[in-house]
Specification:
The protein has 8 helices and 8 strands; from the N terminus they run βαβαβββαααβαβαβα. The chain is α/β, with parallel strands linked by helices. The longest helix is centred in the last third of the chain and has 14 residues.
Length: 263
């Protein structure tokens, strides 16, 4: 089954490598590189929806960088007291997480996305950028999602439809602990690169700038319909590699969804 007709997770399980290759012209697109040494932008208000492995560690890193972070989970603000005391983030209800936010991060299990409150981004800052970190695990967690399986759309395109807002796909194949341990300054030979996919170039640039501020290079992985190249079971999923390594891995992705990730 193809990933797509056009083509929260914490990375606790080992990455599964896809078999086959579909290079197309991906590796020849020169815009897919990081911009070292980009100046740090002003601190932002950031909302994080989901406080699991990825959401919790993004809260830790982003507050340490001076950003104003609100964080929410499905169990309520009282369950986030320890994280708030550790980081200085503001625990809120899910309905309030994106209030005033310039960037909002949706990092919940895919099966929970349809249960997010309607109008979640109505009170966000104008032009709010929404990051989707999600992955589809039909056998392991989420059950079969017909929109993904039957329509052949990418996981993030499905999420976009559910929440009624465009998204940028990032952090979905990153080990959560790497956010704390493997960030490096620009130009460091051991600096990792992360793929970023999305249709809105300005929004994607904003996310790439944030990731580079976090201490990682980035690779432009194309539009949201190209984001199958970074879904579970692809060569880039869980890869700890440089810009060149990530670019090669994206080019080598197979259009076939691995059996382990079919519902």
């Amino acid at each position: 089954m193809p990933w797509g007709r056009t083509g929260e997770q914490g990375r606790n399980s080992p990455p599964v490598r896809a078999v086959g290759a579909d290079h197309g012209d991906f590796s020849r697109k020169s815009s897919r590189t990081s911009t070292p040494g980009r100046a740090r932008r002003a601190d932002m208000k950031i909302g994080i929806i989901g406080a699991g492995n990825i959401g919790g560690n993004l809260t830790r890193r982003l507050t340490a960088l001076g950003h104003d972070v609100s964080v929410a989970n499905s169990r309520g603000p009282h369950t986030l007291k320890a994280l708030a005391e550790e980081t200085g983030a503001t625990p809120v209800r899910v309905e309030e997480a994106a209030r005033g936010a310039e960037i909002a991060v949706v990092t919940v299990p895919l099966k929970a996305v349809p249960d997010l409150p309607s109008g979640l981004f109505d009170e966000a800052a104008p032009g709010v950028v929404v990051i989707d970190t999600g992955n589809y695990y039909p056998q392991q967690r989420d059950g079969r999602i017909a929109g993904i399986e039957d329509e052949g759309i990418t996981e993030s395109r499905w999420t976009e439809r559910q929440i009624g807002h465009s998204v940028i796909k990032a952090f979905n194949g990153t080990f959560a602990q790497d956010l704390l341990d493997r960030h490096r300054p620009a130009g460091d030979p051991d600096r990792m690169a992360l793929p970023v996919a999305g249709d809105d170039e300005a929004a994607k640039r904003k996310v790439r700038d944030l990731i580079e501020e976090l201490g990682f290079d980035t690779v432009d992985a194309g539009g949201l319909d190209d984001s199958w190249r970074q879904q579970p079971g692809t060569p880039v999923y869980g890869l700890r590699g440089s810009v060149d390594a990530v670019t090669r891995a994206l080019a080598e992705a197979s259009t076939e969804r691995p059996e382990e990730f079919r519902g």
